[in-house]
């Protein structure tokens, strides 16, 4: 099994300088190759890698196409059995690839794998983006083992095993190349954020399994490319979640969208009274963008008629967390 480790980069020389050494050091050359997929950086990222990491292959994208299209373009040029999509702000650990490779070889129905993702800035705790594997509730709100909304668990070995999940984090995501191309890659209309949830949902609608392997550990900075409190992240998360419901949910998706629009509105009011006016505007903008793209997303829905009915684990993570006070998975 050949694994291609692909790091998408845009003006991330400082991150590469800090985190690329661990990837090179702990990725066995006998079955893994490392690629830097550069989204038309204007800093000296490429020159730095060429000078200091001669074993790293470089793919130059013509533009800054964001996460989704950037990976789609780059992966067309890479031959491997498995793609490992690794953020430039990820620190890996010894033997991080071995258990992933073994799991793929022993579980032929598993198409996508996420390792354990801990917080680089607080290594005793799980990191927001992915933690110990992702799930969604009936209305499409994402959460994880180890992270529900902003409540992060300490890693005490409680998620060291392997098990099926609903989505794996794009911060560090392994996917069989055949499945990636069968699904036609990420949906480039997402640009960034939640495109991995859509990809995992589409894979499961086709009968594939998404898994978490807790014996592989990486550390993620998080927010290195777009701060968690940036209004654009709010915009993309709210809009793209509606995209995913439209494309992938079962036959009652219109009712789900109505419920989501109402709850999104409540979130917007909450932001307003907290003085976070830019985030209220981001939600409004997300809804109008969703309306504008609805017919396009509905067309994509019709292209894949098979829909998984048992996609959710909780009916409402919002209700469980904010009303019932359940702060952990």
Describe the model.
- The chain is α/β, with parallel strands linked by helices and 329 residues long.
- It has 2 domains: 3-220, Spore Coat Polysaccharide Biosynthesis Protein SpsA, Chain A (Alpha-Beta Complex), CATH 3.90.550; 231-323, no CATH class.
- The protein is built from 10 helices and 14 strands.
- Strands 1, 2, 3, 4, 5, 6, 7, 12, 13 and 14 form a 10-stranded mixed sheet that branches.
- The longest helix is centred in the last third of the chain and has 27 residues, at 277-303.
- The mean pLDDT is 95.
Low-confidence stretches: none
Ends distance: 34 Å
On the 0-100 scale, what is the average pLDDT?
95
The portion of residues assigned to helices is: 25-40%
Strand content: 15-25%
- CATH topology title of the largest domain: Spore Coat Polysaccharide Biosynthesis Protein SpsA, Chain A
The Rg value, from CA coordinates, equals: 19 Å
The main pleated sheet reads as:
10 strands, mixed
CATH architecture of the largest domain: Alpha-Beta Complex
**DSSP strand count:** 14
CATH superfamily of the largest domain: Spore Coat Polysaccharide Biosynthesis Protein SpsA, Chain A
Please provide the ordered H/E string of secondary-structure elements: EHEHEHEEHEEEEEEEEHHEHHHH
Q: Which word captures the global form?
A: globular
Structural class by sheet pairing and helices: alpha/beta
| CATH level 1 class label of the largest domain | Alpha Beta
- The number of helical segments is 10
Q: How many domain modules?
A: 2
């Amino acid at each position: 099994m050949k694994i291609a480790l692909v790091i998408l980069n845009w003006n991330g020389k400082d991150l590469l300088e800090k985190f690329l050494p661990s990837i090179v050091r702990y990725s066995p050359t006998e079955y893994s190759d490392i690629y830097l997929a550069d989204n038309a950086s204007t800093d000296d990222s490429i020159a730095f890698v060429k000078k200091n990491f001669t074993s790293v292959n470089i793919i130059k994208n013509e533009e800054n196409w964001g996460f989704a299209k950037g990976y789609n373009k780059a992966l067309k040029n890479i031959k491997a059995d498995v793609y490992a999509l690794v953020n430039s702000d990820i620190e890996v650990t010894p033997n991080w690839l071995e258990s992933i490779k073994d799991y793929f070889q022993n579980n032929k129905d598993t198409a996508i794998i996420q390792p354990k993702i801990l917080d680089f800035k607080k290594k005793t705790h799980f990191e927001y983006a992915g933690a110990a594997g992702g799930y969604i509730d009936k209305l499409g709100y994402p959460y994880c083992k180890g992270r529900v909304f902003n409540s992060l668990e300490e890693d005490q070995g409680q998620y060291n095993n392997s098990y099926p999940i609903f989505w794996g984090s794009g911060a560090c995501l392994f996917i069989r190349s055949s499945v990636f191309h069968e699904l036609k890659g990420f949906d480039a209309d997402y640009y960034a954020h939640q495109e991995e949830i859509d990809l995992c949902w589409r894979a499961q609608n086709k009968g594939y399994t998404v898994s978490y392997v807790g014996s592989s550990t990486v550390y993620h900075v998080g927010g290195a490319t777009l701060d968690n409190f940036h209004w654009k992240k709010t915009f993309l998360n709210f809009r793209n979640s509606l995209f995913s419901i439209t494309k992938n949910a079962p036959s009652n998706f219109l009712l789900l969208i109505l419920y989501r629009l109402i709850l999104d509105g409540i979130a917007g009011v909450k932001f307003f009274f907290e003085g976070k006016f830019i985030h209220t505007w981001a939600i409004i903008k997300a809804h109008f963008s969703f309306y504008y793209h609805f017919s396009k997303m509905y067309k994509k829905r019709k292209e894949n008629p098979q829909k998984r009915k048992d996609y959710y684990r909780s009916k409402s993570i919002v209700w469980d967390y904010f009303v019932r006070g359940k702060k952990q998975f």
